[in-house]
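To: structure subgroup
Subject: Chain for Friday's discussion

All,

I'm putting the inputs and outputs inline so they're searchable in the archive.
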Amino acid sequence: MNKKNIWIFGYSKSTKKIAQSLNKDEFFINIIDQDENNYKDALEDGYESYMFDITDDEELEKLDIKPKDILVCIMDDEHLNVFLTLSLRSFCPNNEIIAISHSIHATQKLKMAGANKVIDIYQVSANRIHNIFNKPVATKLLDNFISSSHDISFREISVPKNSIIDGKTIDSLNFSIYNIIMVGMVDFELGNKFIFSTTNINHKIDAGDIIVCLGKDNDLDKFELILKENIS
């Protein structure tokens, strides 16, 4: 069986599991990173690895990338990931480029830069939570996990009037910058039904609505303080 050739750009602690999840019998994995520690980690994990400045187009063009190879951009730095995607698309016009996004804003930029597929980590997390809520056994397991992880919890937050999210739509907000996930909300304009953030309707958040978020307790505390700041 011919292996598919994959070039993965980025091998930090937060993204290396993506490479590890690929079957080495099915894929030949190449790792590129400009950080020396990440480069050494990739070598120790048994990958073909390269280290150079990924903003240097001349270095990128030296890579032996074939038209059918798959390119995966998973740099932790959002701006660097967009720049990389744009650079790769310029000299790999026919290759499939998959990029990882940590926010709605980055997703749009990556698509404009030429990524064929963008995996939104925030959306994936919210979808997983949505599925868990619809599976009673899994919900029980999640409850046990949260009860044993004392710094992680769900929290209902009432939206203050004139706060930074009052009047904004869900899609326009980037909750990941606060290190939390918005699971859903109760939009009182539409009734008292709980609405998951993964639905296709772009709901507007109004003062008095209830949003439900998941995160570490200290991050949730900080977010609530931010909502109360500069309220006139």
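Points worth raising on Friday:
The chain is about 35% helix and 25% strand.
The mean pLDDT is 82.

D.
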